[in-house]
Amino acid sequence: MSQHQDPQETNKNAVTRINPERRTFIKTIALTGVAAVVTGVPLVSYVIAPSLKKGTGKWIDFGPVEDLEPGGMEMLSYEFMVKDGWLVLPQRGFVWAKTEAGGKLRVFSSTCTHLACNVIWREEEEVFVCPCHSGRFDASGVNIAGPPTKPLAVLEHKIEEGNIKVFLTV
Ligand code: FES
Questions:
Q1: Distance 129 CA to ligand 1 centre (A)
Q2: Which residue in 132, 125, 86, 126 sits closest to 111, CA to CA?
Q3: What predicted TM-score, i.e. pTM, was given to this entire model?
Q4: What is the per-residue pLDDT across 86-103, written as a single tens digit (0 to 9) for each?
Q5: Ordered alpha helix ranges (H), the chain
Q6: Residue to substitute in 108, 110, 112 for testing ligand 1 pocket (most ligand atoms within 8 angstroms of CB)
Q7: Is the separation of the CB atoms in 146 and 134 below 8 Å?
Q8: Whole-angstrom Cα distance, residue 87 to residue 89?
């Protein structure tokens, strides 16, 4: 390029010198990129989303409330299938239900608040005992001995058409 050549003239010449095959190639690459983004993002979301999905809740039906012994603490077992990412696995466990004066019902999680072992109700002492590290909770679920620093979780429940339904995190 000579020193006196107009720069705009130089650019114009540069544009006209692009090979038509190269232009087609660049267009193809650009369109391929757009297509990859348009189809790829939903596809990746569809594949990855189930494994990133956080746990949700589920109402579990434990049967007739009238089957509970008044004033007693009863173990209610459950088993249902849970979708975990791409797997469907059984989830089993139990909760503790206590009927109180006036028919009031309280449902406790069986999960120890120390390291998540299952607590067992000991009727003769009226305490929940954790077999793992001897944690103890009173009949209201309050931690009274051992390593647990928090009470047992009291679970949300409702009575529908005479059946106890408990909301569990899955
Ligand atoms: S897990 Fe229950 S006391 Fe440790």
A1: 9
A2: 132
A3: 0.68
A4: 899 998 999 999 998 787
A5: 7-16, 20-52
A6: 112
A7: yes
A8: 6
CA of 35 to the centre of ligand 1 (A): 54
Q: How large is the C-alpha radius of gyration of the chain?
A: 32
CA 145–ligand 1 middle distance (angstroms): 10
Mean pLDDT (the chain) is 84
pLDDT in tens, 129-139: 999 999 999 99
For ligand 1, the distance from its centroid to the CA atom of residue 65, given in whole angstroms, is 30
Let me know the angle formed at the C-alpha of 13 by 7 and 15, rounded to the nearest 5 degrees.
105
Is 146's C-beta closer than 6 angstroms to any atom of ligand 1?
Answer: yes
Which amino acid appears at position 75 of this protein? Answer: M
CA separation (Å) from 78 to 9, 88, 95, 128, 142?
81, 16, 8, 19, 24
